[in-house]
Design brief:
The complex is a heterodimer of chains A (269) and B (234). Chain A is of the alpha+beta class. Chain A is 32% helix and 11% strand. Chain A is built from eight helices and nine strands. The radius of gyration of chain A is 21 Å and the shape is elongated. Classes of the chains: A alpha+beta (269), B mainly alpha (234).
Chain lengths: 269, 234
Amino acid sequence: MAGHGEEKLLNLTLNVWRQRNRGDAGRFETYKDEARDISTDMSFLEMLDVVNERLIKSGREPIAFDHDCREGICGQCGVVVNGSPHGPRKATTACQLHMRSFQDGDSLTIEPWRASAFPVVKDLMVDRSAFDRIVAAGGYISVRTGNAPEANNIPVPKYDADLSMDAAACIGCGACVAACPNASAMLFVAAKAEHLNLLPQGAPEKDSRVLAMIDQADGEGFGNCTNHGECEAVCPKEISMAFIARLNRDYLKASLKRPRASAAAGGAG
Amino acid sequence: MSVVASSPAAGRRPAPRSRLQRFLTSSIGLKLIMAFSGVFLSLFALGHMLGNLQAYQGAEALDAYGALLHKEPALLWGVRLGLLGLVGMHIFAYLALTRRNNTARPKGYRQRKWRESSYASRSMTLTGPLLLAFIVYHILHLTTGTVHPDYEEGAVYHNLVTGLGGVNGLIYIAAMAMLAFHLWHGVWSMMLTLGLPEGRYGSLGRTVATIFTILVTVGFATVPLAVLTGVLHL
Ligand code: HEM
Ligand code: FES
């Protein structure tokens, strides 16, 4: 597929983090010959595919990196390119980043997300199961399964619905943690709690939800939010840190209330 | 979202604690303590700055103001203890938050590009302790007179004019520059933490924080500047 303008070929220098497994100390390796003649029409991950083919042909271990949909919706990809999670383009996942964002002769430092709660599995792949556990702690609503109810049974104000959808855009890639100077997961937690808290279906479990999700995030070893704002700047879905403020408010409210006898979520109805 | 099968969530969740315990140790609880004490410390700074401006009305007015503050020892000590408590809460939250943040990223990046954070936000952990050092020095200087060259009990105007010349005046002005950084991020951050959904630059919260910071720090800094330039003299 042709990109914007004419296809060009780039010769790059890659400094890539290589780490065999969790226990390995890891180190940077430099690739120059393997990163020649890279088409500006390639995506960043396609560029890594090409480099990997060349590594395999010369009998070396390919660079491990995460990816799945390659269309910016699954949240599986993500590496830090020259100090920016998902690379230099705003609102763009690494898989949707194209090599035309770079210049011939560029030197790219490619690192994994760095956070103690995201241990490196191999090379550029990190274990983000801490995010799954945060969602499991409270990022759901307890409803009976069965037929989908009539959509307009519960009226939702347009403003709330829009705001909730903005938060629900989170794909859980972890770029917010990677970018945060404190390695805090607060933007993720805020998005996953607030898209439910904002809706009537999610409101009944609001208090237990925010308390449980923050407990889990703290226990996973993420840092604390000090409102730097790096998270919203790199978020490929442009989720605003205003959701963090909402989460703070909901947390304060939940803390001031008397805990209910049955604190566990679920069993409603 | 993950490539590795998750272990049960409960394993990493802290054991159930009392509400207060949870609040005092959780990330958002600590942040709220920071913000809550920050609100009152900021208001104190504003009030203190406004009080200081009476230096421009001359020795009598300022000394009378000083005497007024010392009139009711119970009230004076109540306020002092209150301030001490607020500073204590602020430092407690700072230590707890920073300790955790320092372990949250054991291995840093080789390269780092900042997009939205500011010098002010990234230097909070530095300007905080420096301000504490300044406050200790400041109390020993103008409240107790311990490190003052020519301290006279109750003669506030005299103490200001003889104490803020030369290097001391410059220290005060430098401290106000630090205070400006601390307040500019702090006041905005405090609003977010207390739950006012605030967005990027250009938001109402930013404007409030900017105006408040300029007002307080410039107001403070004019006094040593006026002493250094001879506008305020004996
Ligand atoms: C140029 C800036 C400043 C000047 C000229 C100034 C001046 C003074 C003076 C003259 C006193 C003694 C008042 C009295 O004896 O009645 C005082 C006390 C005090 N100041 Fe400042 N101040 C400045 C900035 C600050 C700042 C930025 C803070 C903290 C945020 C601060 C905190 C205090 C405290 C805690 C006391 C002791 C109150 C007490 O317990 O008596 N000052 N200041
Ligand atoms: S691979 Fe799915 S978002 Fe990039």
